[in-house]
Design a protein that fits this description.
Layout: E1 2-6, H1 9-15, H2 23-37, E2 41-45, H3 66-83, E3 92-93, H4 97-109, H5 122-130
Parallel strand pairs: 1-2
Antiparallel strand pairs: 2-3
Length: 138
C-alpha cells in the first residue's frame, strides 16, 4: 500500500498532534499516520490526498482552493531543496526516522516553512516545533 500525499502535507505531518478540522478528519489523519508509522511509502499527488478525504464532502472544501495548490508548490520546492532533488506529483518517498528528523530540523529553522504562510494551523505547528515535536504522532 501507498499513502497518497500532496506536497504541503509532508510538512503538516511533522507537527500533527491529533488536532484538526473535525473528529472525522482527525480520525482519518490518525489512520494515515499509523500507516506511515508502519512503513508505507508516500506517493506525491496533485490535489486532494488521503488526508483530505473526509473534507471532500463539504460544500466548498478548502483542499480544492488555489491557496492549497500554492502551498503544495512552495512545499515541493523547499522539501526538494532539502532532499537535493525535485519533489513532484508521481514521486515516491520513504519517511524513515532519519529523514523525518532532517525534515523536522529544517522545519524548526524555518527552512521549509514558506508554505505555512497564511495557514490557520501555523501557530500550533510553530508551538509543536518549538517544543521539540514531543507530542507529534509520527
Amino acid at each position: 500500500m501507498t499513502v497518497r500525499l500532496r506536497a504541503h502535507h509532508l510538512l503538516c505531518l511533522l507537527t500533527y498532534v491529533g488536532k484538526g478540522y473535525s473528529p472525522a478528519f482527525t480520525a482519518n489523519y490518525d489512520k494515515v499516520v499509523g500507516r506511515l508509522g508502519e512503513g508505507e511509502a508516500v506517493l506525491i499527488v496533485s490535489g486532494p490526498d488521503d488526508i483530505c478525504a473526509p473534507m471532500l464532502d463539504e460544500p466548498e472544501p478548502h483542499c480544492l482552493r488555489e491557496s492549497a495548490a500554492e502551498r503544495d508548490g512552495l512545499a515541493a520546492r523547499d522539501v526538494g531543496a532539502l532532499l537535493g532533488r525535485p519533489v513532484q506529483a508521481g514521486d515516491r518517498l520513504a519517511l524513515d526516522p532519519a529523514g523525518l528528523a532532517r525534515m523536522r530540523t529544517a522545519f524548526s529553522s524555518g527552512q521549509t516553512r514558506q508554505a505555512c504562510s497564511g495557514c490557520e494551523w501555523s501557530g500550533l505547528c510553530g508551538a509543536v516545533a518549538a517544543g521539540g515535536f514531543q507530542d507529534a504522532r509520527l
